[in-house]
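Hey team,

Sharing the Adenylate cyclase run so nobody has to redo it. Sequence (160 residues) first:
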Amino acid sequence: MSGGVEIERKFLVARLPVLEGLKSKPVRQGYVTLEGDSIELRLREKGGAYFLTLKSEGGLARMEREIEIERAQFEELWPTTGGRVVEKTRYVGALADGTGFELDVFAGALAPLVMVEVEFDTVEAALAFTPPDWFGADVTEDRRYRNRALADNGVPGRPG
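Structure output:
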């Protein structure tokens, strides 16, 4: 089980970096809770592992608790997502300064959306971060770009 506070910034991607050589995994996640609920409960299949994740409301910093579950448990719960699903390929890499990033290339109805997330140890580090030029608009506080909102509503228009 992992848990604690997740501190991350999320950006649209202005220019796709070279993906060759980056580790990647297919990700399928579905949402049990609806947009507007006070918490987010999701099921995630990532590279053959299965997880149940609970997240609080928030933007830059949110509480997150995740437990690994068995495939049978995942399959039993999956219908509760009601089709509120996100499918993507997640690429994991590091920026020139060593800061890690996760780049999501969305599939299906959410294609050709591409976003990148960077996690931090402190809010101060997150606020001090200067994104590289291939990062686009910062959508950290734009609720329309949360995966749950994307699963419910599809790709939004321009970030606002």
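The mean pLDDT is 90.

Ping me if you want the raw files.
A.
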